[in-house]
Description:
By secondary structure, the chain is of the alpha/beta class. The protein folds into two domains: 2-92 and 280-298, Rossmann fold, CATH 3.40.50; 94-271, Rossmann fold, CATH 3.40.50. Helices cover 30% and strands 16% of the residues. The strands form two sheets. Strands 8-7-6-9-10-11-12 form a seven-stranded parallel beta sheet, covered by helices on one side. Helix 3 links the parallel strand 4 (63-66) and strand 5 (85-87). Helix 4 (94-109) crosses helix 6. 33% of the residues are buried. Residues 37-304 form the D-isomer specific 2-hydroxyacid dehydrogenase catalytic domain.
Amino acid sequence: MRVLFTFNIKEDQLRSLEMGFPNTEFSFTKNIEDVPLDSYEIIVTYGEDITPSVLDRAPSLKWIMVASAGVEKMPLDVIAEKGIIVSNVRGIHKTPMAESVLAHILSLGRALPTLREQQERKEWNMKVKQTELRGSTALILGPGAIGSEIGRLLNAFGVYTIGCNSSGDRAQFMDETIPFDQLKEVLPKADIVISILPSTQETKGMLDDSYFKLMKNTALFMNFGRGDLVKESTLVHALKHGEIGHAVLDVFEKEPLPAESELWELGNITISPHVSSHSGKYVERAMEFFTENLSKWQQNDRELLNLINLKKGY
C-alpha cells in the first residue's frame, strides 16, 4: 500500500509510522502536481491541493485523509462520483480554539485592553468598566466538538449555554439546544453569540441584518467558524449603529482582510487573523487521527473516524 503526504511531518513521526505499518510505503511532496499518482491508495493533505485534475491522475485513490476540519474548497461532487472516502480531523481544533474564545471573552469582560491602553499612557484610573461571566447566557452556533468544548469551559464560569444546530438534537455541555429555525427567538436572550459553524449551503450568508437587530445592544458577537456566515457590510452596520456591543472576528468574508476594510477602523471590534486554532501540537494531533484510521483501513474497516458526508459537506 502506498500513501502520499502533501506536507512534511517530523522524523520521529515518520519513524513511528514506519514501525507501526511496516508494509506501507510513505512518500512526501509539497507539490502534488509534480508526482505521478497512479499507485497511491491514500493521500494525506490539507485539502486545497485536491483538484479534479489530481483526482483524474489518481485511479487507485480510495481514501483522502484531510488534516484540516474544513473541506469546502475540495471538489466534493467529483470525489463522490469516483467513490472516494474522505475523512478529516474534526475536533482537532477544540482545545486551542476554545481557549482562544475564552481568552477573548475574559479579556474584554475584565477590561484588559483598556488597562493596557492606560498603562501605555501611564494613567492610573480605577474607573474602568468591568463585568463578570457568572449568570450570563452564551448562544453557541455549531455546538459540535469545538462548540461543546467552549460550552464546557463556560459552564465552569457559571454561564448558561444554548446550542444551535440544524437538527436541534441535544449537544454536550449545552443547557439547551435549539434548531436553526428557532434562532431568532433566542437571540434577544444572549449576552454572547459565538459561531463555530462550517461553511455549507445552509450557513452561507445565514446571519443577515435582521439577526443583528435582535441581539442585545451590549452583546458580544464572535465568529470563529467561517467568514461567509455574515457579510462584512452587515457587520460594519451592526457595529457602527450600536446593534451589538463588540465583535471578535477570527474569520472574514475575504482573507486576508484588505487594508481598506472599514472593520480595521472601528473601535468596538477585535480582529484576529485566523489564528485561533494555531497550536504547536497540531500535526501531532492530526497524526493520531491518521494512525487510528490507517489501522482500521488495513483491517478493511471503512467506518473511519470523522467520515465526511460528501453531500452535506461536513
